[in-house]
Amino acid sequence: MKTVKDIMSTDCVTATTKDNIYELAVLMKQHDIGFVPIVEGKKLIGVVTDRDLVTRGYAEKHSGSTSATEVLTNDIKTIESSTSVDDAAKIMASNQIRRLPVVDNGNLIGVVAIGDLAVREIFVNEAGDALSSISEQDHRELASSTH
Where is the CBS domain (predicted)? Predict the structure, then answer.
């Protein structure tokens, strides 16, 4: 049985609570990512997505010098590296999550993205179901925001 440790990305771009939202936006642009785990040392504190920067940051008229702590999500779903790939796919689908931090003993050791499930042709159906479910949610959010 394959575990998350077999497929997770370990070269995560991270930031700290001392970083500001402008620095997070620059990191996202430089690395072409939309998700940055916020850590203290190796301990996962929360995550900031590109959507967080927009909705909790700039759309709230916060300046670029605003602390990352103002926009981060700290109530996040995480999994351990020993979690099976099948269980990870189910967690991602049921929680509508595209990226799932992998944490052992409170420390961030990697991230599993929905693409990690599909690209490696492991549990393609679950990854497809998860992506489809997430995309439907995004579509519903978009449709409801246009009315």
Answer: 8-64, 72-131
